[in-house]
Design the sequence.
């Protein structure tokens, strides 16, 4: 019996027409993510007196208002003369699905899994005639006994999870106050300064080498069925993890950040689950480069860069070495290195047909993403946020997210996507258990496929 | 250049001759009376005051003769005043402004069309070509039910649309004029394609709690010219009922009529028809004559239904797959032209100045008796009217009328801009056009307006109004937020 039932699908257009002939180019960081898509779900409680359909109507109207400032979101994909993707701002709108779910939002959150959650955020894979394919999809699901789930999915070509969160926050501001706090900015990624050095040996070839080798790999094939679990680590626990990850012989080194400590923890844990005895599995981290490149908060587009963390020589359970290796890689990803990478990528005329995150274990740092400030109605903050970067075809994906406010500055929520049996084994791992995480979302139960898009 | 000046000066001379002729014929009576009055005055002056007094005394007036004459004069004048038709005043009107969230840009319309008719690319291509040449803009609106993929045209959705449009227009009208629902004596609603039971009129009466003795009429099936038919009906009723107020609501409900099949002749209305409605406050009360904006001068109705081709040219039927829609025949323009000719032949003598009528008569006699090959003289309606509101049925209709009536671009501007901003809103489009003219500040006291509408049947109905109050530029209304952007240049073909 379907818990989520579809009411309708429609297109939401902006309230102001877009001028004809407007085009938005996509940067290399955008284009390399062509085969991925992002899905975000935010859960809210609603006032008791709210009638069915009222929240949906309110949000739909404010979305239409908001879209006037985002012509790139309502545009469609088109190829440039050079064969690269760009957006033609043709004012076609975004698709919106309205749905209804049984029970209340709190009840749902006590008993949900990946498959059920993905029913709350509609997505349509790219189809043949891309000119009629909407790049953004919004789903508003009202819970019959109270509550609302706002699901937003989009092609990774246009925005990364951080950008999607900024968009949702802008939507929330528009609903609450009628105006945006951070209006969007559409501009190219920054270029290197005018100091003309040689274009050859860059100070940081490892990053470019990593991208180069990934681009040359064949398209990965999905093997086992993946599932996602969600764990919450309390403030105290994260602090003790950091303490454990701090290399004992170097008190001058800065202590690892929560992301570095947790990424190290899962790197070590998952390597063990996968049965690796000497060394850890190949892992890449994905970091937000907005602050590093000095971009404004309202920058719209992709600005997350992947880099491999060398794991040779680290034995199992050597948490501090793992965290240290991660920290070293993070420190080397500076503005100069990123801009060199961008320049190198722009030099490559080929299509990017690989999946950046389709091979290794990927750890994505989303700990500063601002999802809990997306408040649509006075006094109703989001109670839960989920992020997915699909498809997950590599060794696994770990997203480190912030916790709801009020749980301590170091507490974090981690979403781990792994093949089903590995996920179940991970929950029983001793190292992970040491930090007593709360299980927010279990692995999918073995049952027949629930209703997905009709 | 030297070759042009004789022609140019020739045309200037012709212009003056024309002006002179017009002035002479139009003020013929004045020209006749002036010498007669002058003669009498001269005679009186010549006679002198004493002589006039003697003349006066010599006239023997019998008391009875005086009494009878005065009674006769009083009787004739009373008969005259009583048998004159009651003037019908248009106090004010309100047009429905659709919410911006119902906007349908071209790209969105084409995308939906493609998603719904995914197996019929030729039909989608056809719709795209129509839309490119339609003259519509990016801000026209369709009702919410049509925004769904696939559209969900249920009866409930149609009723919702009707409530949204009609109640909004009537609320605005009541607010603007201070009219109260219980004062309405006559209510007429016209909506061609949606006719539920109870009628839309009953819906309005129920919502606004109108009086039990209200005279209500619901006109359906009469096409885009039903607005003028409603005005005609209101006028006739206001002749029978003294001191009454009539409210006319003109609209077209799009929801139930969105064609979901693939026949090309039936896809055209999908591309052109958009949401809209208007509510009009008419009165025959003397107290309203002070604040009324317009007075109704004439309504002329022409029906070509006796001709089979005209009857079938706009026809609602089911396509081979059983989907119902309105099919438009290829002869539509030709039949519209014929209907227009009939209408202007009837309205011409009522409104044209004597100069034009004389020319038309001479041309007619000449063609009949002398040479049938003479070109028929098309009277210059620009002399009879200051403003034209041509039903914005489509770009082709406006082009055709502009050519037939020899109107300038400024005369048809209201129609073209209404088509661009609101699309074809059927019977209410004439009111959006009138609203445009007012919003542009072009309406002056004493101006005459001609509203022409075409509709299925085939009908051509028109109404002539005279502006009796100086009209300030309205601060609200459907054009208030966008009038500064108009007029826009509408390209022949918009590339999608």
Sequence:
């Amino acid at each position: 019996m379907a818990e989520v039932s579809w009411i309708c699908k429609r297109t939401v257009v902006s309230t102001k027409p877009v001028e004809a002939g407007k085009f938005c180019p996509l940067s290399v960081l955008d284009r390399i993510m062509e085969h991925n898509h992002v899905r975000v779900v935010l859960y809210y409680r609603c006032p008791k007196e709210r009638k069915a359909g009222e929240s949906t109507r309110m949000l739909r109207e404010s979305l239409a208002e908001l879209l006037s400032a985002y012509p790139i979101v309502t545009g469609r994909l088109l190829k440039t003369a050079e064969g690269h993707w760009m957006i033609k701002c043709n004012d076609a709108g975004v698709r919106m699905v309205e749905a209804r779910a049984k029970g209340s939002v709190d009840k749902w959150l006590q008993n949900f899994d990946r498959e059920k959650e993905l029913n709350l955020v509609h997505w349509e894979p790219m189809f043949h005639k891309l000119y009629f394919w909407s790049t953004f999809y919004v789903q508003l699901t009202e819970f019959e006994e109270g509550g609302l789930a706002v699901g937003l999915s989009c092609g990774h070509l246009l925005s990364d999870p951080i950008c999607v969160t900024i968009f949702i926050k802008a939507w929330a501001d528009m609903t609450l106050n009628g105006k945006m706090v951070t209006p969007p900015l559409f501009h190219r990624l920054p270029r290197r300064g005018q100091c003309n050095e040689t274009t050859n040996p860059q100070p940081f070839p490892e990053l470019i080498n990593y991208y180069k080798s990934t681009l040359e790999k064949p398209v990965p094939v999905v093997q086992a069925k993946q599932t996602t679990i969600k764990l919450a680590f309390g403030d105290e626990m994260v602090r003790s993890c950091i303490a454990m990850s701090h290399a004992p012989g170097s008190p001058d080194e800065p202590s690892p950040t929560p992301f570095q400590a947790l990424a190290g923890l899962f790197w070590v844990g998952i390597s063990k689950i996968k049965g690796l005895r000497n060394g850890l599995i190949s892992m890449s981290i994905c970091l937000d480069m907005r602050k590093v490149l000095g971009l404004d908060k309202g920058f719209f587009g992709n600005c997350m860069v992947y880099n491999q963390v060398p794991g040779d020589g680290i034995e199992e359970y050597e948490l501090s070495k793992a965290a240290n290796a991660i920290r070293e890689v993070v420190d080397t990803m500076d503005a100069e290195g990123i801009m060199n990478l961008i320049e190198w990528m722009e030099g490559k005329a080929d299509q990017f047909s690989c999946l950046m995150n389709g091979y290794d274990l990927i750890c994505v740092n989303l700990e500063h993403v601002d999802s809990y400030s997306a408040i649509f109605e006075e006094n109703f903050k989001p109670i839960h946020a989920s992020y997915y970067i699909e498809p997950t075809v590599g060794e696994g994906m770990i997203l480190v997210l912030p916790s709801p406010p009020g749980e301590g500055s170091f507490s974090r929520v981690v979403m781990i996507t792994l093949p089903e049996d590995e996920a179940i084994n991970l929950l029983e791992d001793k190292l992970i258990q040491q930090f007593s995480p709360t299980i927010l979302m279990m692995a999918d139960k073995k049952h027949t496929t629930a209703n997905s898009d009709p | 250049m030297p070759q042009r000046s004789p022609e140019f000066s020739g045309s200037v001379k012709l212009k003056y001759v024309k002006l002179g002729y017009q002035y002479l014929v139009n003020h013929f009576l004045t020209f006749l009376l002036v010498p007669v009055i002058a003669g009498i005055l001269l005679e009186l002056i010549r006679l002198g005051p004493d002589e006039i007094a003697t003349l006066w005394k010599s006239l023997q007036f019998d008391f009875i003769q005086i009494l009878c004459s005065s009674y006769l004069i009083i009787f004739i004048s009373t008969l005259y005043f009583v048998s004159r038709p009651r003037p019908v005043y248009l106090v004010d009107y309100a047009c429905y402004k659709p919410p911006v969230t119902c906007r349908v840009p071209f790209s969105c319309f084409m995308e939906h069309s493609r998603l719904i008719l995914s197996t019929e690319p030729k039909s989608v291509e056809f719709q795209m070509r129509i839309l490119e040449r339609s003259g519509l803009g990016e801000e026209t609106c369709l009702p919410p039910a049509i925004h769904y993929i696939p559209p969900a045209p249920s009866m409930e959705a149609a009723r919702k649309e009707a409530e949204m449009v009609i109640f909004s227009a009537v609320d605005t009208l009541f607010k603007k004029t201070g009219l109260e629902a219980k004062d309405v004596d006559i209510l007429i609603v016209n909506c061609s394609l949606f006719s539920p039971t109870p009628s839309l009129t009953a819906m309005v009466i129920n919502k606004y709690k109108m009086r039990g003795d209200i005279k209500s009429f619901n006109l359906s099936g009469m096409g885009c010219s039903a607005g003028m038919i409603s005005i005609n009906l209101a006028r006739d009723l206001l002749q029978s009922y003294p001191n009454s107020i009539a409210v006319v609501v003109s609209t077209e409900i799009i929801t139930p009529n969105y064609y979901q099949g693939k026949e090309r002749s039936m896809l055209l209305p999908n591309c052109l028809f958009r949401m809209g409605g208007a509510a009009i406050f008419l009165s025959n009360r003397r107290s309203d004559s002070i604040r009324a904006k317009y007075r109704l001068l004439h309504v002329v109705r022409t029906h070509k239904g006796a001709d089979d081709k005209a009857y079938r040219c706009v026809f609602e039927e089911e396509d081979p797959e059983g989907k119902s829609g309105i099919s438009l025949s290829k002869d539509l323009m030709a039949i519209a032209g014929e209907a227009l000719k009939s209408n202007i032949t009837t309205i011409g003598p009522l409104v044209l100045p004597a100069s034009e009528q004389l020319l038309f008569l001479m041309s007619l006699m000449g063609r009949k008796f002398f040479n049938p090959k003479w070109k028929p003289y098309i009277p210059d309606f620009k002399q009879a009217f200051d403003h034209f509101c041509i039903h914005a049925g489509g770009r082709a209709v406006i082009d055709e009328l502009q050519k037939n009536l020899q109107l300038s671009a400024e005369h048809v501007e209201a129609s073209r801009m209404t088509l661009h901003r609101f699309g074809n809103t059927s019977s209410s489009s004439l009111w959006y056009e009138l609203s445009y003219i007012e919003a542009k500040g072009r309406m002056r006291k004493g101006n005459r307006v001609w509203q022409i509408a075409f509709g299925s049947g085939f009908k051509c109905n028109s109404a002539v109004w005279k502006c009796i109050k100086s009209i300030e530029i309205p601060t609200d209304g459907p054009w208030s937020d966008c009038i500064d952007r108009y007029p826009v240049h509408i390209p022949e073909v918009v590339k999608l």
Summary: Chain B touches chain A through 20 residues (CB under 8 Å). The CA atoms of residues 333 and 396 of chain B lie 8 Å apart. The mean pLDDT of chain B is 90.
